[in-house]
Amino acid sequence: MAKPAKTLTNQEIVQTAGKKAGKSLVMRRQYQLLLMSTPFVLLVMLFSFGPLWGWIMAFQHYKVALGLWQSPWAGFDNFKLLFQDPQFFNALRNTVVMGVLNLVTGFVGAIGLALFLNEIRFVFFKRVIQTLTYIPHFVSWVVIANIFATLLSPDAGVVNAILMKLGFIQEPLYFLGEEKWFWWIHTAASFWKELGWNTIIYLAVLVGLNPEHYEAAEVDGATRFQKMRYISIPGIMPTAVLLLILSVGWIVQSGYESQFLLGNPVVINRSEVLDLYALNYSTSIGDYSYGVAVSMFKSIVSLVLVLLVNYTAKKTSGSRLF
Amino acid sequence: MLVRRSIGDVIFSTCNYILLLALGIGTLFPFLNLAAISLNDAGDTLKGTIYVWPRVFTLENYSTIFANEGLASAAVRSVIRTVVGTALGVICTAMLAYALSRREFFLRKTYNIILIITMYVNGGLIPFYLLVKNIGLMNHAAVYILPTLIGVFNVIIMRSYFEQLPEGIVESARIDGATDFQILFRIVLQISLPVISTITLYIAVSHWNSWFDNYLYASRNENLNLLQYELQKILISSVNQVMSANTHIDATDARRTNPETIRAAMTIIVTLPILLVYPFLQKYFVKGMTFAAMKE
């Protein structure tokens, strides 16, 4: 049985004194911490939860003059109208198609480029290529759209010039003025913008792979291609699968800036995504309730997708551990 | 050491270098093409395709832009927005991240949960537009700053960085009687240069690049027009012009400037700051991205 200490050692006295002093310090400290955090948490909440308040309008025939309190109720009228409008389904189709195209090309492109970059031994060359391919990620969509408009221009665009020189076409094509090209141009622009940047995570994983595997393969006489096929690709697969699953959740959320900028009234049947459809109804036609209903539909669908996908991702990555 | 390389390896390697080189050129070419067009005589540009070198060199396109008062002041406003927005954004993000990194903070968990929830909640474009309208930010300079002041993702990156700093530094400063504001600004930020640089760059680039808030929330106030929005207007008008004319502009119609060359010069002006800054700061961008990705 241990004897209880009768007298406090010097060290213990210092510790208790420190604890007491610490208590009063905690209160003062927390006051400053509160000041540092609360205003900003409130700000984030305002801009995140604030819009949800507007969802009420989806169930009203909102009139600006009457305001949110006086506007007449509409029940589900706006949603009924929505699901009868072929233009809505058109916008939904555009959103999904361009989302899927971006996802697939971006995913395959990033993994491929990462694998090829990983095989480069000449470090300087690798750095230069990385630096170059990251650049488009940092320029705005306005710039990207201008670049593509210039390249594809029927007047002096390089693409038309080359195609004509090679004899594929006789007359310059209006790439941005024909519906059938829009999805592909949009996909190409997104691909070009994000290709390099998307490789970063895969390159980080590849660098982290166990070098012993490569050394062992070398001893066994494996070719470069075999090493890529049997070591690098399986090495990045878990990350790739996880990222793929996670990004499926964002398919509906793939943005509207690029479609807005690359599109024009002539190709609107292919370029109008849900947000632009909603925007058109609200700001041009003035039917806010209808716009809110579209936004609400999109938000709910994407939230369900994201949650579903996160759940799946957790299950797959969890089972992968064993 | 004996280097044994099979023919297959050599072929693979060569193809790989060629492929990546082509990709590098493919990334660079559009920028060079635009730069060449922007430095080429407007009338001459219509006569035939410019590739990466101007045929009839001129600075006319640039001087036309700088002579335009609207565009020049838009450029100044863009710079001001970027500087002010970035300074405020970094300071506020750092304060929030610091508070959330302190384990003893009694609201730490609550605030963390709230912020995570806000990442999933998205009211949608139109409800957001109506919120901006209702709180009186429409056509007000604050609409450029407030909605994007705090990026939750940036907060998470910074918080994780602060959390892995040695606890002893903060503790000893506290024993010396330093307050949290002093600890953050005099100590923590001084030793967090990598993460500060990364976040600063992210915020600065997004301010410089944004145009949609200008278009949607501030287009009625001419005093708030930014460079990106001016460029977007030029893009729309020139594309529409091509569309409505339905035949391409007659090559003999040589004018001193045309929308195509002006647009190219504008695009270069808007892109140049990023191109100049980027190569020197690339490592910070990549560091931040890798860190964030690993967090996921």
UniProtKB/TrEMBL annotation, chain A:
Gene Ontology CC terms: plasma membrane
Pfam families from the UniProt entry: BPD_transp_1
Listed transmembrane segments: 33-56, 96-117, 138-163, 183-209, 230-252, 288-311
Xref: PROSITE patterns: ABC_TM1
Localization of this protein: Cell membrane
Protein's membrane topology: Multi-pass membrane protein
A single GO BP: transmembrane transport
Domain ABC transmembrane type-1: 92-309
Record-linked InterPro entries: MetI-like (IPR000515), MetI-like_sf (IPR035906), UgpAE/MalFG_permease (IPR050809)
Top-rank lineage group of the source organism: Bacteria
Alphabetized UniProt keyword annotations: Cell membrane, Membrane, Transmembrane, Transmembrane helix, Transport
Assigned protein family: Belongs to the binding-protein-dependent transport system permease family.
The protein's name: Putative aldouronate transport system permease protein
TrEMBL record, chain B:
Transmembrane segments: 7-32, 79-99, 111-130, 142-162, 183-205, 262-281
Membrane topology: Multi-pass membrane protein
Places the protein is found: Cell membrane
Superkingdom of the organism of origin: Bacteria
A Pfam cross-reference name: BPD_transp_1
Primary location: membrane
InterPro entries: MetI-like, MetI-like_sf
PROSITE patterns per UniProt: ABC_TM1
CDD domains in the cross-refs: TM_PBP2
Keywords: Cell membrane, Membrane, Transmembrane, Transmembrane helix, Transport
Keyword rRNA-binding: no
Sequence ranges assigned to domain ABC transmembrane type-1 in this UniProt record: 75-281
GO process terms (BP): transmembrane transport
UniProt cross-references to SUPFAM superfamilies, sorted A to Z: MetI-like
Gene Ontology CC terms, in alphabetical order: plasma membrane
Family: Belongs to the binding-protein-dependent transport system permease family.
Official protein name in the record: Putative aldouronate transport system permease protein
Species in which this protein is naturally found: Paenibacillus catalpae
Upper taxonomic lineage: Bacteria, Bacillati, Bacillota, Bacilli, Bacillales
